[in-house]
Amino acid sequence: MSINLFYQKHGFYKIKTLYAGAKFVMDKLIGFMFSGQGSQYYNMGHELYKGNNIFRKWMLRLDKIVIDIIGESIVARLYDGEKVFEDKFDRTFYTHPAIFMLEYSLARVLVENGIEPDFVLGTSLGEFTSAALSEVIGIEESMELLVKQAEIIETHCPKGGMLSILHKPELYYKTAILYENSELASVNYSSHFVVSGHTEGLIKIKEFLYSRNIIFQDLPVAYGFHSSLIDPAELPFIDFLTKKTFEPPKIPFVSGLYAKVITSLSGDYFWKVARQPVNFPRTIYELEKNSKNIYLDLGPSGTLSNFVKRNIHRESLSQSYHIVTPFGKENEKLNAIFQLFFK
């Protein structure tokens, strides 16, 4: 038994289906969240791949698309049986499609089990997954865009890296060794930010942070996304984008770039999401102003779920959950999500 409810949120009219036994509060919106580069690792989603037929079906379908484009299997590379979490998975040519494949496949698991999003929210590469799920572009075109962007970046841009720093973002502006050797790539919450830079500059920054007992982590990326280090890729990628057409989103599309719902996307949008800095707190602030939400992090590491919890007010009725992390128990976490919605 189910009930259809017609309502308006974020300026969009939508029919929401409530299934018998649903436990969640009706006035909470369901948001699917998708993370980007730096959240990936070998064997991500492997438990789901082995234990969930829908997830495996979509991973293999997307893998066939990749094979047609690049002549190689991402699934075989991701789950080759020899790599472990500690092995760095940072070749953009492979990680771009791998992240998309996992996120889109996990989204399809939820949708095909009756859990549909009231909005999608991507950050960085995750905006490609948002666009595919909301049918701005098809999955074949999404994969083509991701592979092409990776090829162009690897061809035109200098190697670099990204550093996650557990400290107030003000540290960046107050510390010469940071702003002289890197660019601010993202602010994730009040005591967490990421910088991009050349390898030599990041080494200097790590030495400084270590001397001050400030926690930091190298992200598994080979290029300085969200910084001028990838500017050489702009013209060839935008030239490629001008040949593509983009449909209006069929699911409310919360832009991680603009921190608001947008109703149309131009080609250069998919360049900007890689180049411009990310301000995650601003996006969550805007969402929390308008509604109470259930945020479902469908990325590989659960990072966005953690970021949400750090950004929402302690009295907020919103909730945030993840399914996939390097620590496993993916099928159990997926079943726990189902328990939120069904008896």
TrEMBL record:
It comes from Desulfocucumis palustris. It comes from the Bacteria. The keyword Transferase applies. InterPro entries: Ac_transferase_dom_sf, Acyl_transferase_dom, Acyl_Trfase/lysoPLipase, Polyketide_Synthase. Residues 33-332 form the Malonyl-CoA:ACP transacylase (MAT) domain. GO terms for molecular function: transferase activity. SMART domains: PKS_AT. This is Malonyl CoA-acyl carrier protein transacylase. Keywords: Transferase. Transmembrane segments: none annotated. PANTHER family: POLYKETIDE SYNTHASE 37, POLYKETIDE SYNTHASE 44-RELATED. The keyword Transferase applies.
